[in-house]
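so my prof wants the structure for this chain in the tokens format not the other one, which i didnt know existed until like an hour ago. anyway here's the sequence
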Amino acid sequence: MPVSRQGVVLGAAAYVLWGLSALYWPLVEPTGPVEILALRMVWSPVAIGLLVLALGRRRRVTAILRRPRQVALLALGGVLTTVNWALFIWATMNGHVVDASLGYFITPLVSVALGVVVLRERLGAWQWAGIGLGAAAVLLLTIGYGGPPWIALGLAVTFGTYGLIKKRVGVGAVEGLMVETAVLSPPALIYTVVLQAGGGATFGHVSAANTLLGVGAGFVMTVPMLLFSAAAKKIPLSLTGMLQYIEPIVQFLVGLLVFREPMPVARWAAFALLWLGLAVLTADAVRRRGPRPEAQARRDPPRSARSSRTAASAVRDPEERP
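here's what i got, hopefully its the right format
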């Protein structure tokens, strides 16, 4: 697929907006993280439903609902994204934006590791080197923190596992999100009603701005999703995979420059190791995609090489952003 400049701009804009979402959640205060998460779960089906209608994918959603196995897997994926978003919202509201960005930097390495453990894929030397550098970064942070970086690891593991499930389900990102959010919305609605009835809710009781921001919790992802949907049709998947690093870079800069989070030497060193590991992994993935079509036609790669390439491309599918 030829590279479209417009597609690159649209894709980059989508990831910048996803990265800037770290600025959104503190604006919803004094609403707490749990209530914000519930509001997001209540309003997300509305936002995604409008997106489904705009893209003309209603029949695809209906088809998924007729397959119980897919619905069950998507529900499990929805639980994982709920935990992921709970961690992310809490982190952004409690001075851990840099840790959140670290989690999304680690995610591609977790995806590769899951490919080895779950799918029995085989890695090359450079891929093992990338994972080793990532593990060294986590070890360095563990020593520096006096314990594992639980926020980053929780974000990486939940989203990496979510990506694995979505690969197994094999449905479109927008349709899958519609089912995931619809399945989880009723419990969130019940929680919100009980909170309102018990007098412990802030939504609708603080100010008009706070109420609108609460509603926006479900819509904040819609604009970047629309931008990405437009970009995905114009640029190759390999390029969108590289653009995905914009999101955690933006989050990192927000934590560093806006929220002024501390960056001790150990944390800088850990990030340097992690970025080096991702560079190695990305370079190896690009190299493995290098053979021209005519060369591929002359000889198929051996099975081990195909497995290794699959693991190298385990960087999350950008359209699977929850």
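also thought this was worth mentioning. Residues 18 and 247 are 6 Å apart (CA to CA).
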